[in-house]
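Why do we care about 3D structure at all? Because function follows from shape, and shape follows, mostly, from sequence. That is the central idea of this module. The next example makes it concrete: a single protein chain, its amino acid sequence, and then its structure expressed as tokens.
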Amino acid sequence: MGIALLIAYGFFLLFIFAYSIIQLSLAWRYLRKHRALYNRVIPEMTNREWPKVTIQLPVYNEFYVVERLIEAIAQLNYPKNKLEIQVLDDSTDESFELAAKKVRFFADLGFDIKHIKRPNRGGYKAGALAYGLQQASGEFIAIFDADFVPEKEFLLQTIPFFYESEKIGVVQTKWEHLNANYSLLTRLQAFGLDAHFSVEQVGRSAGGHFINFNGTAGVWRTTCIHDAGGWQSDTITEDLDLSYRAQLKGWKFVYLENVGAPAELPAEMNALKSQQYRWTKGAAECAVKNLPAVLRSSTLKSSTKINAVFHLLNSFIFVCVLMTGILSVPLLIVKKDLLAFSVIFKIASIFLLSFLVLSFFYWLSRPVNERKSFKGFLKFLVLFPMFLSISMGLSLHNAIAVIEGYIGRKTAFVRTPKFALQSNADKWSGNKYRAIRVNPMIIFEIILAVYFGYGIYLAFVLKDYGLLPFHIMLVIGYGYISLYSLLHSKVK
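And the structure:
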């Protein structure tokens, strides 16, 4: 029994270590190429006519933000006669009429803007995008989710890059944050997203590996969408799915770290969980769907295949964190009976390098002024362990989503409610979309917090402190997640 525990524990630990090595390679490429890519010059459009662009705004019951979104799009600095705006509205509440009124307002001002309602909500976001694409007249398709407020120069900063090559299918920009400092929860989300939108995206791009369209704040070449098979709704991350199908067809993606599109971060725990569920389960579904084609490809280089494997399997890290945590407690108990394998336990300590690698990875994603100041260093020393703890605390919730994705269990597209939060004075407690029911999952999260607390107790009883930091972070993570899931579920 003890040996079986050790083998299982070693497997999950090995995946975490391999994942951290891939992250280290991305960090290295980011260090080497970041400056050149960040400072790349926008191609000249001299003697070229600006192309027709269709902007798609997929919305569903966005009472608090839909008007802000439409107004931001209408303010884009781009020739009005070259702009088509589609409000792809699946709403079933009063937000539909708010959007309709705003569309009529801008239509009267001469904008080519349409309020499009489908007969049904089949395919969710992917279905809405596909439906709008059938009517789109633009050579390029820009997409913005409801919580985004793009800068006025967005199209002028992105469209020219398509003229560097006819094989460029997507130009993706960096997500910025409207409410990063609203709470600890939003600060930690910004911390994690900044690493993805700097080190990961730039690192993969610099290595010539597959990157992904992030679902919003990017522009597609219309022919690329069609050539790759169009929007498909058999996964709930249609953006990652189409990204891989397009790149397997030979299309190239451009990532612009220096062009940002601000958006709202979820400030309520259950809204964050909805978002995390969709992202992690969708990534698992995309792995099942696209990984075989990646591995079979005869044109992709080996390093690109390896990076694609860990890119598509990145949500499996939550399964690994959950299982190493659960297995670590009984391993503490039976460790004394496995003295013959003591050398393995010593070798396993090398996996502490995973923590150091991830520290370096996330440190690189911090703003330059923070990396050069002692105050910034102290801030990182607080945020990074807390970020890891909260990520660990989400491992049960996300691991279930991942497993559902792998086994093909289909569920509805769960939207992330938006609260229109931009300043600390804004409140969300009365928001009509917030969860008011307590999810039974909270019970299991509380049980795990107590379970890992028992692991802390065992460390002192057995005088074996090797896993103590890990168990402390797990207790903090599950305690925080369960507490705020409970508090944020109550009617205020």
